[in-house]
Amino acid sequence: MQTEKEDEEETNPEQFIALSDFSGGGSDQLSFHKGDRLLVHAKPSAEWWWAELQGDIGYVPATYLHQEEEDTSLEDPWQDEEYFGSYGTLRLHLEMLSDKSRTEAYRQVILSNSASLRNKVVMDLGCGTGIISLFCAQLSQPSVVYAVEASSMALYTRQLVKQNGCDAVVTVLQGRAEEMELPEQVDVLVSEWMGNCLLFEFMVESVLLARDRWLREGGVMWPSSAALTLVPCQADSYYAEKMAFWERPYGLDFTPLQPLAQQEFFTKPKFSHLIEPKDCLATPSDVICLDMYTLQVQDLEEIKGQFHFCVERSGVFHGFTAWFTVHFESLKTGGAAVELNTGPNSEPTHWKQTLFMLDRPVSVCVGDSISGTIVLRRNPVWRRHMTVALHWNVNSSTEETDNCKVGTKIFPMWR
Ligand code: GJV
What we know:
Blueprint: H1 5-11, E1 14-18, E2 37-42, E3 48-53, E4 56-61, E5 65-67, H2 80-86, H3 90-98, H4 100-112, E6 121-125, H5 131-139, E7 144-149, H6 153-163, E8 170-174, E9 186-191, H7 203-214, E10 215-222, E11 225-233, H8 236-242, H9 258-266, E12 270-273, E13 285-291, E14 302-310, E15 315-328, E16 338-341, E17 353-364, E18 369-378, E19 386-395, E20 404-413
Parallel strand pairs: 6-7, 6-9, 7-8, 9-10
Antiparallel strand pairs: 1-2, 1-5, 2-3, 3-4, 11-13, 11-15, 12-17, 14-18, 15-16, 15-17, 18-19, 19-20
Helix pairs in contact: 4-5
């Protein structure tokens, strides 16, 4: 749901404070005094930035500025206005509803549990246009479905429920789930809360709070568990397009731009990457597993995982690709679980996969090992954001044992 966040962030000016006076030479430089607050719109080079001061705009020397402490007293660290604002329009709902694997997985969960859902009380947290609630009402006979939606889409959802003759069963409640009062506890808490790299947006926090408050003892969580999977991968075409490009465009040597390219294209992860199975250099492995019954809100601050891959295909190790899988347990003991897998061996979903590029590619051979750790660290201020820290060792099987390549990289998503 955040394919455009990256662009948004880049157009958001950052605030800086001037460390000393500067009198700009020429018409395109901006003069300022110590203590002035400047808005930096772009950083076209490390030395000269494009900035604004009281309506005037021009180049300023970067070393004269320092970043203001982020003042969160003015801004909502959850960015709810923007977040729920975007869910008040159709674009994201269309993207989610058009995602067949996603929507069919929830439909399948309800269909395969339809007998057990009879007379049950269900809460659909973040129901959007109400699709999951409507599936419940159509395919099973719950006593009631509380469809909770904070965005203004809820007004339309109510109409859709009525239009489809489900208003006797589905009650649409507009508001944040955290502030919602329900008349009773629920038997089933269903939600589609997963973001890029599973946790981005941290909607899962709302689900955990609702669980603790509204799920009755012995009630069921859908999804019931979630896993983040990682694989070391080759990313030839992305590397060629963003980095190798500068080697010889039009017969010229543009390699001095490569450090800039690395900074610009490889600092943040690439959302919406579709990895092909042949680009996986090893068997993917689950690095983080979350149990939706026992997971606590405070656990989200820092989630750690480990990996140990054995290279099964010689090639170039360009980075890591991550995706997630969620499971929905059956309401019947021993019943089959439903899985929604967003990896390269399943139908592509709107989440696609997330690519983390190394700064320098490493050649690897069959039998080499790639081991290390991953840490998802939630931003202490901006609660929907996090960083992904990857640390890896590549041990060659063919060369001397001292040929061990080590790397660490921290990727902001997006803050
Ligand atoms: N309370 C009510 N509705 C919410 C909340 C909340 N705390 N958080 C998100 N939503 N899988 N990453 C709504 C949001 O407005 C949107 O319609 C839907 O849940 C998001 C579902 C997909 N996002 C995701």
